[in-house]
Amino acid sequence: MLHIGRLGRQRVTYYLRSVAETPAAYYLGDGEAPGEWTGQGTHALGLHGEVDGDQLRHLLAGLAPDGQTRLVAPVLRRSPAARLRTGPLRDAVAEAAATRAWTPDQVCAAAGAAGAWQRVSSATRASVEDVERVAAAIRVDPAELYGTRRWQTAQRARDQRVDARRDGFDLTFKPPKSVSLLWALGHRVRTARRPPPSARARCRRLDQRPTNAPWRRQR
Prior knowledge:
It is a single chain. The chain has two domains: about 1-75 and about 170-210, no CATH class; about 80-160. The longest helix is centred in the middle third of the chain and has 14 residues, at about 85-100. The chain is mostly helical. Mean pLDDT is about 80; it is low at about 210-219. The chain has twelve helices and six strands. The chain is elongated, with a radius of gyration of 26 Å. The chain is about 45% helix and about 10% strand. Helix 5 (about 85-100) crosses helix 6 (about 105-110), helix 6 packs antiparallel against helix 7 (about 115-120) and helix 7 crosses helix 8 (about 130-135). The strands form three sheets. It has a two-stranded antiparallel ribbon.
């Protein structure tokens, strides 16, 4: 079974620290085996042998292994910190509408915030600007709804752009739970009729797959 997770630059240190310091430590269960470069891309980049931590960090940052050349341009998008949960604001609008015997739509439309309210009411998170417009429509301080610190953080992040590029993927091959239980509890069946392919062989198959080919989960 293949589990696909996101591999980000922030998690590189975690993966590198999990590697056993010596072969003896690995066989004693104190750490993981060091990674090895594999795949067609490694040949193009001149990578071979054991994974080097600095080279891995450079690649995940979109740079060449030596860190001197940019291979992938950053995808700049607005910082997620500039988006706020809409729940507190929607509750406040509903409360304000109830006191006037209006609907939330009527309250926001009367203050010229119909468009902002439409976006706020239909999403789980909203931009700082929409929160400001809707909060002004019901005469509520956003800092009271979200807390002063959270509101100030969103205000500072409103003009920030962050790299939203997906750095890489973490592919974990593991047998399903039923196989693990069979191995642990079964007293007759100890070996499979056909040995499973190695991780290196699986990587070769993934490497040969077209980048635009459809994926489906298999168990």
